[in-house]
Amino acid sequence: MATPVTVEPAPASPHRFGRITLDMRQNLPPWKQAVFLGGSLAIGLVISIVILAFAGISPGELAGELAGVANADSLRNTLVQAAPLILVGLGASLAFRIGFWNLGIEGQMMFGGIFATAVSIAEIGPPSLRLLFMGIAAALGGMFWVLVVLLLKTRFRVNEIIATLLLNYVAMYFLFHLLYGAWQDARSAFPQSTPYKPFERLNDIGFNVNAGLLVAIAGVLVAGWFIHMSRAGFYMRFISSNPGMAKVVGVPIQTVTFWIVAASGACCGLAGYVNVASQEGRLTQSFADGYVFSGVLIAFLARNDPIVVAVVGFLISVLFITGQQLQVFYQIPFTMVQMIEAIIVIAVASSEFFIRHRVRWIR
Amino acid sequence: MNDFFINWLASAPVTAVPYALAALGLILSERSGVLNLTAEGLMLVGALAGAGAVLSLHVHPALALIIAMAAASLVSLLFAGLVVVLRVNQVIAGLAVVFFCQGLTGLIGTVAGWQNKQIDSLPSLNIWPLSEIPVIGRIFFMQDPIVYLTIAIFFGVNYVLFRTMLGLRIRSVGENPAAADAAGVSVSLHRIIAIVAGSCLIGLAGGYISVVSVKLWVTGMTGGRGWIAVALVVFARWAPWPALWGALLFGCIEAVIPRIAAAGIAVPQYLMLMTPYLATIAVMVWVGYRQSAVTREPGALGQPHVREERR
Amino acid sequence: MSVALELEGIRKSFDGVVALNDAVFRARPGEVHALLGENGAGKSSLMNVAAGLYAPDAGRIIIGGEAVSLSGPSDARARGIGMVHQHFKLVKPFTIAENILLANRRPSYRGGMQDIRAAIKKQAAELGFDLDPERRVEGLTVAEQQQVEIVKVLVGGVRILILDEPTAVLTDAEAERLLETISGLAASGTAIVLVTHKLHEVKKYADAVTIMRGGKTVTTLDPKQATAAELTELTVGQTAPLPARSQRGNTSTMLNVGALTYARPDGRVMLNGATFFVRAGEIYGIAGVSGNGQAELAETLIGAREPTSGEIFLDGVGNVGNAPATRRAAALAAIPADRYAYALAGGLSIADNFSVASIRSGRYGSLAMIDRAAMRRDAAAAVKEYDVQGVRNVGQKAALLSGGNAQKLVIAREFSREPAVIVAHSPSRGLDARASAAVHESLLAARERGAGVVLISEDLDEVLSLSDRIGVMNKGRIVAEFDRPADRQAIGRAMVDHA
């Protein structure tokens, strides 16, 4: 038998009101799960709309902005924006699958961007291979920044949640150090690097699709194969499900953990590069803003599955583009996007409680 | 050079207070077994509420700080509901609350127009004649009232945690909820009490930054101090007094940054700004290196309480 | 005579699985009332209902003649029902006094502390316990912790004291003392409910016994009027005897453990130079009072933790070092006590759990592409061979298996690779009689095949019935060895000797 449990009731209310008990339930029909999930998502979105209405955006205007995403120009922007979001979603999913809380997504993106830009500035490799070199450098940059944390965790038991979050700030100030200093574009008053050369940028390949999206889709396929079909992916499940048991049955925990965490950082580094090379075409100071929680959200909603990450990443991209437009036209700060993301996570996480428990009232 | 040190040490308590109060609030809630990552968000809520109260309601700064505490504890009820009642993963819930608060405070601060507006604040006390003592007077007896209140709060929380029935129950719920439950202690209720009470202190920490220390509201102004407070709790091994010393250490580090630039010492400013975060990591490394796997972490930290598995 | 506690028609189910079905129970003041049954018969569930921990789905609870509905454990305590759980409900870092104060509410901490200290001293003196209220629970022995539990309940003034398997963790001598103490308590008018599966305790100490099977109460009778055989049949039905064992010759050494030490991070030494060897075709039993390093020994042997020093030599491999993978390659099989800690990933499928141990051999596909069909095929065959019940398909989660069937799955996996050495730690813990018998048969079959078996168990009966040689573990060392047939008394002395 499974492990049915009763959960501690809400503060006991003797006699008159009976008592509330919670039972774990194992199987809820999928359609019921979908109802709970859909219902809670709807509640979350309604709350978001209400908050935005208080901030001065009527639901009608909001609908207009959302409808605007469907026009060709916005659709292109949405697809361009989707690429880094999918990549950070993959990065988060990989790490979360082995219980490594990689919250250093922004820092790793920044280091991805910095490494790629370094290749551009130092003009490493011939023009025909420059893009490839920049991509590799970006992946290595992200990898470097996350492996620092893995080292701290394994050697000194430093909690990776805190370490990754703090290193985001360190990466940010390092980026500022470069952009307000050695790397600042001499022809610009803004903290940004010299623009990339045309062959260093990710361009559109037609049908509103940017080359960055291809990178993201390639990432989805590789991650999907890795998780579902490779032996390492098989091992991964044991590491997250029961590390003690995994060790005893001979799963090479350290090796697998190392490569998964490295891959997670590489995805985030690539996300940073895809973002700068397809949108601004140069290193800017805020290109990684808002990606930490987006990565967490995408991985959480996709249940760490790469294919679903692609779908959720696209939807969050719509949210991003809408948020950018609200910022431009209504002066609503972009952090609003994070607030809505958080509301969605809270709503979905709450629905899981009702999917997993039955609440009963016994008199 | 002497002036440099006196100025530096005299300003350290002001930078230390937010760390101290936030870490103490986290300790209170983590002692009940709830892994609490919400400090960064709740400090922003406190900071915004305090600043907003002064700017829009024109209340006395002291009242603004109380409003900051109330606002943070109100938002913490959301967190408590998620982790205690709905048993959502405490890391996910904590992160969600932080980013919710970042978004919400950014939105409200901008819409209400509170950005970058000067705030009239609490004057510093001048404990005469002690303040006239050279060096020591400046450092110890010319601070704002909240600095002294913080020390009183530490005594108070320490007393409640270790010398009252309520504290005994909160700690029991954090160490072994099954035992506490069997002893008739309501796990949910005590966790909620600990979260909300702790969040009051975190709110005060945030309000102090905007109302007393910086005297401005700026979006995202806590700048990672909440995460540093989370690290401080580990450093202090969930005990109040070490958290105060740790906070003073970080207060000193943070206070020295602007002073080095002001003293005309040429150091790259953005690399200087990394110091608190790198120092935090260094401290964590030291903790991990020193205490060979023995922590005084509450036994049930991070685990939702589920009564009696049946085998 | 009056009735102290009466339970009528109690039903309780968990997610549709019936744990208690029309259970009936009645205890009188001043009697020791045994509740006898196998693991999983519903004894603990029934008493958890009486103690207010579980809310029954149906039925009546009558305390001292008054029908009540209990809102929780504190409500039960207020009505004079106290329970000492099998897994102690103590807060380890707290002192004894703090633990007892926690469970016995006082208006103020300071006054309460003084009050509680006095109460502990008085109660402990009456029971003949030696407890210092200021000691921390984490430093106490298991027997002392149990004394704290009993004092905790008695300080609150109970009329009905429920003890859930109180002797399971004690030595024979300690158990004897405890049961004497409890008889004394009953004589002073308290109703005692003794939940147990040990017949001799029932025969010797109980005034009445209620027998449970499959969530139902079978009957209540006077144990003095029934023979042990009758009681056994009422509890378990029939059991088959263990198969005959062949004689073993002087065979080669399969496993050699030399001066193994392990110190916990807090500095406590759990293994202190444990040394022994196991021959081919031999079951080497390790007996001892729980907490003398058996768990650490088992975990070290299977590779779950690294020893501080010492060597583990496997036949044909040499020193296995610290990598568990080396041991797996050397055909060491692990049957750990806590299945869900070291043997199964409950959230993953039966097929995954079965095939993970052999995936390195390449049997289930290459590095780049795993072969799920082969995994399912082999797992299904093993499930059939080892008679793992409750499997609809091998894609279902391992956590859905009952204790006995989960253990069969572990054994199926570990034996699928023809192990040379088997490390089994309390392999029948939590299993019913039938499942235990199946596990024991598997171990004996491995012995017949020529494997060396290490059997670490706190259940002395299990060790005695299966082992060819027995080592006694005391304070992290093997202090004595006995050949079959071993003298139970001598083993008992070696277990508690303070040499």
Question: Would you kindly provide a written description of the structure presented here, covering whatever features stand out?
Answer:
The complex is a heterotrimer of chains A (363), B (311) and C (499). Chain A is mainly α and 363 residues long. Chain A has a single domain (73-355), classed as ABC transporter involved in vitamin B12 uptake, BtuC. Chain A is built from 13 helices and 3 strands. The longest helix of chain B has 29 residues, at 2-30. Chain B starts with a helix and ends in a 21-residue tail after the last helix. The model of chain B has no long low-confidence stretch (mean pLDDT 89). Chain C folds into 2 domains: 5-236, Rossmann fold, CATH 3.40.50; 253-496, 3-Layer(aba) Sandwich (Rossmann fold), CATH 3.40.50. Chain C has 17 helices and 20 strands. Chain C has helices spanning 43-50, 73-78, 96-103, 109-127, 142-155, 172-187, 199-205, 228-236, 294-301, 324-329, 339-342, 350-355, 372-385, 403-415, 433-449, 460-466, 488-496; strands at residues 5-14, 17-27, 32-36, 58-63, 66-68, 81-84, 160-164, 191-196, 208-213, 216-221, 253-263, 269-279, 282-287, 309-314, 318-319, 332-335, 421-425, 452-456, 469-474, 477-483. Chain C has a 6-stranded mixed sheet with strand order 6-7-8-3-9-10, with helices on both faces. Chain C has a 6-stranded mixed sheet with strand order 16-17-18-13-19-20, with helices on both faces. In chain C, a hairpin with a 5-residue loop joins strand 11 (253-263) and strand 12. The longest helix of chain C is centred in the first third of the chain and has 19 residues, at 109-127. The radius of gyration of chain C is 24 Å and the shape is globular. Chains A and B meet through strand 1, helix 5, helix 6, helix 11 and helix 13 of A and helix 3, helix 4, helix 9, helix 10 and helix 12 of B.
Note the topology.
The complex is a heterotrimer of chains A (363), B (311) and C (499).
Chain A: E1 6-7, E2 19-24, H1 30-54, H2 59-68, H3 72-97, H4 105-122, H5 127-156, H6 160-179, H7 211-228, H8 231-241, H9 243-248, H10 253-280, H11 291-301, H12 306-330, H13 335-356, E3 357-362
Antiparallel strand pairs in A: 1-2, 2-3
Helix pairs in contact in A: 1-13, 3-7, 3-10, 3-11, 3-12, 4-5, 4-6, 4-10, 5-6, 5-10, 7-8, 7-10, 7-12, 11-12, 11-13
Chain B: H1 2-30, H2 39-57, H3 61-85, H4 90-111, H5 136-140, H6 145-163, H7 165-175, H8 177-182, H9 187-213, H10 225-235, H11 240-262, H12 269-273, H13 275-290
Chain C: E1 5-14, E2 17-27, E3 32-36, H1 43-50, E4 58-63, E5 66-68, H2 73-78, E6 81-84, H3 96-103, H4 109-127, H5 142-155, E7 160-164, H6 172-187, E8 191-196, H7 199-205, E9 208-213, E10 216-221, H8 228-236, E11 253-263, E12 269-279, E13 282-287, H9 294-301, E14 309-314, E15 318-319, H10 324-329, E16 332-335, H11 339-342, H12 350-355, H13 372-385, H14 403-415, E17 421-425, H15 433-449, E18 452-456, H16 460-466, E19 469-474, E20 477-483, H17 488-496
Parallel strand pairs in C: 3-8, 3-9, 6-7, 7-8, 13-18, 13-19, 16-17, 17-18
Antiparallel strand pairs in C: 1-2, 1-4, 4-5, 9-10, 11-12, 11-14, 14-15, 19-20
Helix pairs in contact in C: 3-4, 3-5, 4-5, 14-15
